[in-house]
Known about the structure:
Elements: E1 5-10, H1 17-27, E2 31-33, H2 34-42, H3 49-55, E3 60-61, E4 64-65, H4 67-74, H5 78-102, E5 108-112, H6 116-120, E6 127-132, H7 135-143, H8 150-159, H9 163-169, E7 172-175, H10 180-194
Parallel strand pairs: 1-5, 1-6, 2-5, 6-7
Antiparallel strand pairs: 3-4
Helix pairs in contact: 1-10
Amino acid sequence: xxxxxxxxxxxxxxxxxxxxxxxxxxxxxxxxxxxxxxxxxxxxxxxxxxxxxxxxxxxxxxxxxxxxxxxxxxxxxxxxxxxxxxxxxxxxxxxxxxxxxxxxxxxxxxxxxxxxxxxxxxxxxxxxxxxxxxxxxxxxxxxxxxxxxxxxxxxxxxxxxxxxxxxxxxxxxxxxxxxxxxxxxxxxxxxxxxxxxx
Length: 198
């Protein structure tokens, strides 16, 4: 049985991965957004709420997970973070398998996974595209986010594989240190290259 070519899309914080994923969707490629899936499962009536509340009492409410409270419960605590990941990651993995089944006839699907190298691994993924930009562009984008501080940025970076290592492991690199039009052209060229291979 044939299945779609699976492209893993990843990149460190502030590199423009979400913008690239949106460009791929615009072209018509089905994109599985791991972060959006987590938000859905942690949102109002989300499937993960009972397990998260049991592990971290007081961090959920009628609207779902209280991200501030849950963040405070796991921030800087590796054991707590591991407990949370043990709840979240298997559920995301199941959702990804369902997504693949739903798009079984597509020639290409994209898994948008922020921590692909760090947590998920390449199993079931045919090639990986890393979204990358110069460090100063990354820093500027991240520190412009609401509520972001130097300390938070440093902690996030410490948990992520350095960009240079991701680039070395990538099958394809999409450079977002350029104009949006240039990035869009790179995305279109990559999709064009991948689809005829089937």
